[in-house]
Amino acid sequence: MGARVRGRDPNETEASYPLLFLSTSGHKPGALTGHGLFLYQSAVERGHAIKTVVGDRAYFPGAKPEDLQRPLAQAGVKVVMDYKNEEEELGQQAFYASADGRHNLVMVTGSWHLRFMPAALIDAEKTYLDYLKTITSKSEAERSKLRDEAHALLRQRRKERSRYRLIPRSGYDATGARQYSYPEFTDPKVYDAESDTWIDVVIPGKTLKVPGVLSDKNGVKNQNHLKYGQEYEYKSDVWRAWFGKRNNVENGNSCLKDADREALGVPMKRRMRGPWIVEMAGAMAAASANISRIIDWLKARLALRGMNRMNRSSAALFEPGLESLTVEEHDRRNPFYRLAEIEQLRLIA
Fold this sequence. Notes:
Blueprint: E1 2-5, E2 21-25, H1 35-45, E3 52-54, H2 69-74, E4 78-80, E5 92-97, E6 104-108, E7 111-114, H3 119-122, H4 124-134, H5 140-161, E8 167-168, E9 178-181, E10 189-192, E11 197-200, E12 207-210, E13 214-215, E14 221-222, H6 224-228, H7 237-243, H8 247-257, H9 275-301, E15 303-306, E16 315-318, H10 327-332, H11 343-346
Parallel strand pairs: 3-4
Antiparallel strand pairs: 1-2, 5-6, 6-7, 8-9, 9-12, 10-11, 13-14, 15-16
């Protein structure tokens, strides 16, 4: 079963709101076309405003652009993804050369870069993985030392690559086109160690618009820049902050499957047959988990306190440390606080 779980902006606190299941779909993630988009659309149609989607490799970049990435791009949704350790997903993922010869770009790890960027920076991830394969016969201590040295070089090359990266200036339009700003360079030349040559730095302007449909070296039309493209620089601090939120999905899957919680992974606790009833069981398990998450959030976020000396027996929910708020003021601070008006929840200690 696939599920979409609400995440949290890295700048928000854990107390902002409970992380609920927004939508479910009865399929094996990545195995069937269209379910990733269904999960998104289902949540949006029920009033959830989704600005960023963080997905695992089964969806990103595994889906075809027209099945998932393009509709998200057209809706203005930012995408955060990781890549498989495979040839087609590392190194050059797409390229763009304008007809007039002014603009020449290469996409690496989801971002557009100036094409004269040294080859060692383009292939940094591939070089690292290839190197790891050459040290498998060494002792564990040796492998650990060499792996650390290689990873330090990879981090250095990623840092160097940043200066060649174009910065998005707008969202995607209906065709998949997007406007970017060129980076600033003061160096007249850059050195490419692989070819042992100095390359002229040519910045054709301040901005450009990359078309929505590109052509590969054989002239075949494609939208690989949407398939592999993502909002933040790969492995940067902001990327790590966002991608780390994908753990919410794994936590959610565990919540649904564990025998001591919703027990969806225990067949003897759901003795029914057929895909539709099983999918319904999954949706009901997600709804049940949401209720538990709301209650847990209320218990962690709020505290039961007496309102004042005159009515100690009348319990009211207050934020810890903010006892001066009235119930009405308190409930206006967040829509979830309206749940505090439910009598059953007032009994939670």
